[in-house]
Amino acid sequence: MSDLAELQTLLAGLLIRRRALDKDAELVARTPEWVTGNDRLLPVEQLEIYREQFWLRHSASLVEDFPGLGGILGQGDWERLIEEYLEARPPESFSLRDLGDRLPEFIETREWLPHRELCNDMARLEWAYVDAFDAADAPPLDAEKLKSVPEDAWESARIALDPALRLLETRYPVAELRRALRTSSEPVPIPEPSPENLVIHRVQGNLFFQPVSRGAFELLCALGEELPLGAACERAIERVPAEAESIENDVAAWFEDWGKRGFIVDVVTE
Q1: Which pTM value belongs to this model?
Q2: pLDDT of residue 1
Q3: Half-sphere exposure of 249 (CA within 13 A, CB side)
Q4: What's the rounded Cα separation, in Å, for the pair 67 and 64?
Q5: Is residue 90, in this structure, part of any structural domain at all?
């Protein structure tokens, strides 16, 4: 088992090399120790097939999950970024679904990358879409239960958010940019910075984004941490004092809207 594990580790390292294996003379000479070859292919050529497939399959998966990021970068910079990412952060999961989970943080380390902050925002948005799509289902909010909550119980009530909800702060309007990059047949200009607070949500298998105010966003974040409603409102006001009046006066309207959109799935009272 030790010999097999060592061989697997060796071959795994060769498969993530960025350049063709037959360019390495020492490796060409040693490959027959591990691979048999046949009458059509040398041992190194057999191994090269798997190396090429590693890059093709994994690159294609990332293209599918991060179309907005690819649209910002263009072919050359995209290929360089993905090659560096796969080399520095080889897959740790058996599922291709998890392949891009470390891409946003990796982008932060690439000083050569044009529009790096924009790219980071886009990658975080697109990973949020992947994560939301695969999240657990939850029954919709029971309107009758909502009506039965006593008025004096709301302050200590805990609001359960949809497990597929994702909350994202961005420095650029990447949600609209992503939509434009995917639908426009014309070149899409790079936008100016414009901070947004986004709610990513899923409805019947389809993904949507909803911009909200900073106060509403902080309230949703606090509710997502399972703070009671009263404490959640207090924290949102503390973090966004300029919107204190809006948070106090609009929370009922927000809840009605969030319930209709499926952001809220339950209200738990003591």
Answers
A1: 0.88
A2: 45
A3: 4
A4: 6
A5: yes
